[in-house]
Inverse folding.
């Protein structure tokens, strides 16, 4: 397991470890996490989860309670006790549970879990619980991602291949635009042309903030604003974010 993407938080994308032994839940939750723009890794039981956590940095763990060998409660207790080397004892953990027995919530929280979601998992509920737990920790998760990946994936009729093609083309054009912005020397008509073309591409990959900044620069350049440097700087920064998002998507 290896991640090349930018650190979680910078793009709103999180590194999530899914510890789950059920194959259907694995497929469903991994697909959900990836479509949300997160980097997800899978552990099939508690032992594998502890091993992966010791090797890679994660922002959050989705921890199934019932797993063979070391179950979710035991794995969580070991992490909280600081008994697992290289694993931060305070890593946010959300329990996944098929139980709905009275007293369960108290049992999970006593084991050190930050929150829990019952199965079958509702994606809206899971999203809300992840956001709640991270917000309580003051952890990253508040910054919206550079790309509205859910909307893009849905527009691409859920074809990963198409999304990957769009991102590859965007990254190539984006890099060329960065150079052009740099060499335009503040020339308004050149900047307006670059911004116009960039606005089109930003719209195509659902990069909302980049689109707004490109329109902003185009408008400023056409309306004869004397100093375009601030607009150009902002656009270049957002463009770099979007390129980073595009190249790290499912990398
Ligand atoms: Mn299970």
């Amino acid at each position: 397991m290896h991640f090349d993407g930018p650190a979680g938080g910078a793009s709103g994308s999180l590194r999530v470890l899914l510890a789950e032994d059920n194959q259907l839940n694995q497929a469903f939750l991994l697909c959900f996490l990836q479509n949300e723009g997160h980097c997800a890794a899978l552990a099939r039981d508690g032992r594998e989860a502890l091993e992966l956590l010791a090797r890679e940095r994660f922002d959050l763990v989705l921890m199934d309670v019932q797993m063979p060998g070391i179950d979710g409660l035991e794995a969580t207790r070991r992490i909280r006790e600081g008994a697992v080397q290289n694993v931060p004892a305070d890593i946010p953990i959300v329990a996944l549970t098929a139980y709905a027995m009275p007293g369960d919530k108290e049992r999970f929280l006593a084991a050190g879990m930050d929150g829990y979601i019952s199965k079958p998992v509702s994606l809206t509920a899971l999203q809300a619980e992840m956001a709640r737990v991270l917000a309580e920790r003051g952890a990253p998760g508040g910054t919206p991602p550079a790309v509205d990946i859910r909307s893009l994936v849905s527009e691409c009729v859920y074809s990963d291949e198409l999304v990957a093609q769009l991102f590859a083309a965007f990254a190539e054009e984006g890099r060329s635009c960065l150079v052009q912005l740099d060499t335009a020397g503040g020339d308004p008509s050149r900047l307006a042309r670059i911004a116009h073309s960039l606005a089109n591409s930003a719209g195509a990959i659902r990069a909302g903030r980049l689109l707004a900044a490109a329109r902003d620069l185009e408008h400023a350049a056409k309306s004869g604003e004397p100093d375009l440097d601030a607009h150009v700087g902002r656009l270049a920064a957002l463009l770099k974010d979007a390129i980073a998002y595009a190249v790290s998507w499912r990398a």
Q: What stands out?
A: The two ends are 11 Å apart (CA to CA).
